[in-house]
Structure formats: structure tokens, C-alpha cells
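Annex B. Sample input.
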Amino acid sequence: MKQIAALVAAFMFFSGVAFAGTPAAFNSTPREVVDYLKNFDGKAGVYAKNLKTGRSLSYNEDVVFPTASTSKLVVALAVYKYLYPAASPAKRDYYDQTVARMITVSDNNAFYEMLDEAAALRPDAFKRVTRDLRLKRTQIHDEDAFKRYDYHSVTTPYEMARVLDAICNSKYLPKAKATEFRGYLANTIYNDEIPRFMETRVMHKVGELDSVLCDVGIIDDGKDQILISVYTSTSRSGSYASDYIANTAAKAYNALRRK
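Annex B, continued. Sample output.
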């Protein structure tokens, strides 16, 4: 029986059939998720929304945090929105390969290459994206942000959730490109935060810098799509922040999904 169960599970995984839910230990209400975050040793913020029902929960969703590597989402959007259309076929292939590395393995060299491309071809590309998406607090590779926050790129849990939604909903980017981008997000090499306790598809981008750890993702179980954006800053070492994000994601998913 165990062998049969394992084969069925493998079939469901590789055929794309979604498992529902997370372990029952994470069953929570939206209020309980917020109460859990209030006990974080440091600063934490979350914005989570069921994209099918509109139900949401939030805590410190408008507080500014350093983006860490989640800024790569905005940079990738800028590349596809403002550099890609006028590029040659060869240059488009280069952009595709570089963005793929930037998202799936969080390649910093690829990130800096795209910063250089934008600076040379469309210096206003990042600000255009933030204006397009009506992001008031998000600044990417910006000297003003550095003067105000000591980081060149900053955002809020709510605003980076809007960025991820724009990537995945096929409204800001062409449908084919959005589909390709979702594939990158679903196949990152990082699985310790939002995906840790999930038994279904997760499209996400994690970021880590100094005392900052964050993750923004969409959990797609075939019935619901739960968008979760969690940002933390703490002096605690080890896996403290990672565990908190993983637990928060599991709790928020169970609080917002349709049972």
C-alpha cells in the first residue's frame, strides 16, 4: 500500500494535480495570523490575499522595508515592459536567459547586467514601472532611497504583492511572457520560506540582505490562488526569520483558502 500511495503521489506531482492545503497544525484565522506576527522579535509585515475571493489579511503592510532580492521582480518587469519590445531577436534571447537566471537562482551578476542595460537604454524604466503600478513607496536602485533608508531599493509588503500580481495576472505583460515568468517563479532553487510547508505549486521570489529576510509568492492549489508577501528585519540569527516566514505563509494560506 505504501508503494501504491507513493506512486499515486508521484503521479499527482508530475502531472500537475494540486494537493490541497497544508498540515492541520497550521489552521488559523486571519486574526491569529496577525497575532502571530505581533510576537516577532524585530519588525515584520505581511499582506496576503485570496486572488479568487478577494479576502485578505494584513499587518504592517505599508511599512517600508529593504527589498533585498525581491527588487529583481521590478527589474525583470522593467526589462520586459520597456527594453524587450524594441530589442532584436538575439537581444531578446539574452534578456530571457538573464531574467531566468535572475529569478530562478537569484543570480546577482545577471541582476547587475540588467541594471546596466536599463541605465544605458531606459534610465527611467524602474520609475515607469512603479508609476504604472501606482506604487508610492517602492524605489528601485534609487539614490534618494539610499539617502532616506540607507538602502538603494525599498518597498512595502503590500506594494511588492502588487508587483507579483502584475507579473502573474497577464494584464501588465503579454500573456505568453507572463506564463514564462510564472514558470521561472515556480522553479526557483529556494524552498525554505513560503514553499516550505506547501503541498502544491508556489511561484515566489525570496530576498535576503543583512538582517532582512523576505519572500513574496502565490500559492496555487488549483482552486485558490493565495498571494502572500512577508518582510522581516531582526537581529536574531539562525533560522528564526525563515521559520517565521514559513509558518506565517502556512497560517495565512489556511486562513484565506476556501476549505
